[in-house]
Amino acid sequence: MTNRRKRRLLFESLEPRRLLASNIALQQHPLDSADVNNDARISPHDALRVIDYLNSPPVHAATIGSFHDVTGDRKITTADALEVINRLNGGSDDRRRMYAEMRDAGAGSYQPPGTASDGHRSFFNQLGQNWNQFETDAGEIRDKLNEVTELPLGNPAAIIDKLNEINVAVETAEERIVNTLSSQNVAYRDVLEVVKGERALAELAERTVGAYSFRGVAASHADFSYGSHERNVFDIWLAESSSPTPVVLMIHGGGFVAGDKSAYHQQPLIDEFLNKGVSVAVINYRFQTNPDLDRPFNENDVTVLDSIHDSMRALQTIRHYAEQWNIDPDQIASFGSSAGSGTSMYLAFHDDQADLESEDPVARQSTRLTAVGALNCQFTYDIRKWPASLGIPQAWADDQLVHLKEDEFQILDELDFHDMMSADDPPLYVYQPHPNPDPPDLNLQGTNPGSLKNHIQHHPNFGVELKQRAELVGIPGAYTIIGHDIVPDDGEYERLIDFLLASFA
Fold it and tell me: DSSP 3-state helix, strand, coil percentages of the chain (rounded to 5)?
């Protein structure tokens, strides 16, 4: 027996907005979003620059001299000026503001007291080194930004290439700091309070275990077990509300062989959802044991399908506790990147797998979703269908599967979530940032295997396949596919958060 729950995206009337040109996603300052005029400080002049733009917009939307998109929604509105004002007044949860706060407090030069433990001393020493390096990188990045301002507007490809280069540099610089914090399960807010002297260093030890959001909010339940394996756990933050709250599931990527739910702890997404009255869960799952498919499966192997079923069980477990946790079981969305996106789409597009006859109350829960987000995604896990989409020889897929037995191909059939899509499935958000739509050159595998693998697995054509299928069967959605210059037609739901929130009743 199947039970398909039909959810539709609710569209609302929003204020008039001035949309940016399609490839100006990086019109937000990469180092500090409120630094509109790129002078390395935040002042009322930044808000005034946005207001001037709105009152007298330039002929070219892609003006590079200033970074008007403060909120990062790829639109220029009065909200961007307000965000600067909030920043000046100490508000906003913006990640760049947190960096600025830590910099101004002296996080890079903080010296722990003599009574500090060796662990704390080592942590702050590493953090300081990372932070000083970030400041050095920031200087180089600002030089690149100045180079961008000198590029002619008539050469948008050069502008986009330079901005993408800057974005990669920023992400690399951020990663060192994030990894240092994540390794200790310490939040930015905790570090900032210690450096400012608002919290004793000894209290930081309380935050070295458990799960904490970007702003230091402790999970309502950390490492909550939903199965027998050590990786069958999730963290869940329950939003404060007098009525049942929607839930967003975050499922990490890593090719089903790596990754961890803690990757989301140091991202502002959790706090953004909580501030909107939405509960959040981040999920771990088992890793596959035959990832290269270089031999037939054995009975003890964990397959991709097993990993996905783990996340399905986590979803059912959360529904099982809906009343106890003040959760609305009919309003649950999911998203992830790479493996997390495929898992989310499998849950979204597969028939409801609730076993209503089971003695297990968790197994009786629905597996359907209200909305789904797919970032850096594939359109199917049946790689037999990839060559036609990518424009590469079919022999490539055959070579990958040569060791599998005939009956094992049933797993691939079950993982073809593209063909599962039908009109009563939930709204779909796709973000496919890979800029190169060319067919992968398989001859390059020996020289740059990492780059080639990313090009194949996150190819922009995969996003197009999902878009075409969704439109064919009538699933509403929003699509940003950089390699094919595709952005949402209506311009209203260009942020994952906005899209998911709009799907909740």
Answer: 45, 10, 45
pLDDT at 212 over 80: yes
Q: Give the position of tokens 């040569």.
A: 402
Token reading at 232: 């069958």
What is the C-alpha R_g of the chain?
Answer: 23
Find the mean pLDDT for residues 377-392: 95
Q: How confident is the model at residue 11 (pLDDT cuts 50, 70, 90)?
A: very low
Would you list the DSSP string of 148-171? HHTS-TT-HHHHHHHHHHHHHHHH
Task: Outline which parts of the chain fall under CATH 3.40.50.1820.
Answer: 213-503
**192, 312, 381, 417 from 345: Cα distances, Å:** 38, 11, 11, 7
Q: Which of 252, 265, 248 is nearest to 207 (CA)?
A: 265
- Give the SS3 label for residue 163: helix
Which positions ≥6 away from 84 have C-beta within 8 Å?
Answer: 34, 36, 42, 44, 46, 47, 50, 70
Q: Tally the residues of the chain.
A: 505
Q: Give the CATH H-level superfamily of domain 213-503.
A: Alpha/Beta hydrolase fold, catalytic domain (3.40.50.1820)
